[in-house]
Amino acid sequence: MFFQKDIETMPREELKKLQLEKLKYIAKYCYDNVALYKRKFDEAGFDPSKIKTLSDIQYIPYTTKADFRDNYPFGMFAVPVKDVVRLHASSGTTGKPTVVGYTKNDIDMWSDCMARLVVAAGASDEDIVQISFGYGLFTGALGLHYGLEKIGATVVPCSSGNTEKQVMLMKDFGTTALVSTPSYALRIGEVAQEMGVSRDELKLRLGLFGSEGCTAEMRKQVEDYLGVMATDNYGMSELIGPGVSGECTYRNGMHFNEDHFLPEIINPETGEVLPEGEKGELVITTLSKEALPVLRYRTKDITSLTYEKCECGRTHCRMAKPTGRSDDMLKIRGVNVFPSQIESVIMNIPQIAPHYQLVVTRAGTSDRLEVKCELVDAAVLESLGALSNLQKTIHHNLQTVLGIDTKVTLVEPKSLERFQGKAKRVIDLRNQ
Ligand code: DLL
């Protein structure tokens, strides 16, 4: 049930001591080896040798995505490129990608982190695991791949796309676990149905999902389609990729690998560190990485942390599912709206399929949010009364939760775009 029991169940006092030692080391290591950190520390008047307690972390300046952009491609590395054995990159929406590098030790540490999380989620050497993240510069596929191989699972590196073949292999190989985004898992389930492959013909039992947000309601849909228990894991390229935190089988928050990643929650507007349990922006410091150590990285993900011991016995803190990224938040006529709130509302309506799109436009000075929902059954389209009632119900439920008026458009079954990686559900046309 554990991959590294001594560390995963370490008493918190001991864990904190370990974190403090590592924090002192990594802060000095960054100062000595990365010009950006030397400059930031000097400007802030921060001396890494003055760190005495874990809370002294608050004096370390934040690192942001802009720092990666400004130091493209290798300027954030703390080792010569010669010592880097792997590069990955995350595609930015604009301009150059964010480049990340790993030493041999980093890859080992990453594999351990991933192995811990997949074991916590219930995977074992008995599993045949299909990895349906895209292989390549994206960290997701190879991150999970190494962790799963480490625990002795049988890895099928399918990559994403060619969904019919994915279903065929899943059936023929008796795949027991699937690694993908929740939205691609849904697509695989849908294609299986279209191919006449029922979930009972598959041996799937476990979903190791991650890389994008997924509400409880959406997760239930994925589970029903595929007949799996869905677990969630979180990470980001700048910090390592997947392997930062993940759910155990109790699914009560995602356990951090806290000996390697030190989390804080801050007020995204003021930068103030918030007390335990409060919701805010997640900030993470890598405690062990060699090639690309990152201090106090502002993830922009909104979540909260709990430090209570989990029923599974793990002592490392857990993060709630992120409700969204601070930069995904839509401001509609002055009201803050997270796409996850909309997802929760529409997934509770049985006539609506788990596919939707949000289109934001501006008419004059007023913003308009259109929620396009896909029908499960085209028969509704034949009755104007049924269609109008359904639309009114969704409109009303959205108004109650969001407090704003929306335009609800019902569209034909299977007409909205499907995704092989992260779903892109928001189309914001306001600044065009
Ligand atoms: O998505 C790393 C990853 C791969 C995590 C596979 C888990 C599984 P990036 O492409 O850099 O890295 O995207 C990072 O994705 O800041 C979150 O906004 C979002 N994200 C990642 N995992 C989750 C999750 C990978 N479980 C960004 N729930 C992060 C919600 C997630 N959002």
Can you give a write-up of this model?
The longest helix is centred in the first third of the chain and has 22 residues, at 12-33. This protein has 11 helices and 21 strands. The chain is an alpha/beta fold. It has helices at residues 5-8, 12-33, 35-44, 65-70, 104-120, 139-150, 163-173, 182-194, 216-226, 339-347, 384-402, and strands spanning 86-90, 98-102, 128-131, 154-156, 177-180, 206-210, 229-236, 241-247, 254-256, 261-266, 280-286, 297-303, 305-306, 318-319, 324-325, 330-332, 335-337, 352-363, 366-375, 407-411, 426-428. Helices cover 31% and strands 25% of the residues. A hairpin with a 2-residue loop joins strand 16 and strand 17 (335-337). The relative contact order is 0.11. Bound molecules: 5'-O-[hydroxy(phenylacetyl)phosphoryl]adenosine. 5'-O-[hydroxy(phenylacetyl)phosphoryl]adenosine binds at residues 90, 139-140, 210-213, 232-237, 241-242, 299, 301, 321-322, 325.
